[in-house]
Each structure stands twice: as structure tokens, then as C-alpha cells.
Amino acid sequence: MEFDRVKNGYNRYQVDSELAAKNQEIDELQRKLLAYKKQNEENDRKIEEIGRKYTKLLHDLDIKERAIREMTRNALDEANGILTTANRNADMIVKEALQNAKTILLNISKLGIEAHEIKINLNEQLQILSETIDGFDIPPIPNVELIEKKYKE
């Protein structure tokens, strides 16, 4: 802004009016500055509160992650223990089944041998019986008609 020139300098009313406007503008800017400072302090407080919450959340998350890792490790240990026990039990069952199968096969083999020996023995006895039967002489059968006639008389 330009001021009008007068005898001893500038127009006093114009200068005073401009100074009053500038002072009013300065007051308004200071009020805004104060409001911005208060808002900035409030924002700083909120940021600090959010930071504390964030730190607490990180801490809680870390605790939960450690707990999960511990539970996972325990579950894996337990599962491995169960698998180890199951494998041992399965091995014992398979060994026992194989032993039973071996015993059964041995018994079947013995029965087969005994059956073969019995068959040979029976064949020999049948042969002897057959020879005995073949060697057995049947006496002549008397004439039944003659006997009947004799009794009828």
C-alpha cells in the first residue's frame, strides 16, 4: 500500500488505519498460532498415546508369538512322541504277526508231512489188507436147494 504524502511525511490517518489493520491481522494470526499450538500439543499427546498403545500391542504380540511358538514346539514334540510310540507298536505287531505266521507255516508243514506219512502207512495197510483179502479162500457154498429138500422131507 502507498500512503499519501503530506507536509511532514505521510498521511497520519492512512498510516494509523493501516497500522490498526496490521495490528488486527497480527492479533488474528497470533490467535490462530495459539490455536495451532494447542492443536499441535493435542496431536503430540495423541501421537504419544498411540505410540504407547502401539508399544503395548507390539509387546502383547511378542508374548503371543512366543506362546504360539512354545505351543507349536510342544505339539510337535508330542506328535513326534506319538509317532515314535506308534512306530514301535507297529513294529512289535508286525514282528508278532510274522512270528505267528512262521509258527503256523511250520505247523502246516508238520501236518503235511504227517498226512503224507499217514497216507503212505494207510496205503501199505490197504495193500496188506487187499493181499489178505485176495489170499482168503472162500469155501464152496453148499447147494441150498438140497438142504431145503432135506428139511422138507
TrEMBL record:
Keyword Coiled coil applies: yes
Coiled-coil parts of chain: 12-46
UniProt keyword terms in alphabetical order: Coiled coil
Cross-referenced Pfam families: DivIVA (PF05103)
Top-level division of the source organism's lineage: Bacteria
Protein name as it appears in the record: DivIVA protein
Species in which this protein is naturally found: Breznakia blatticola
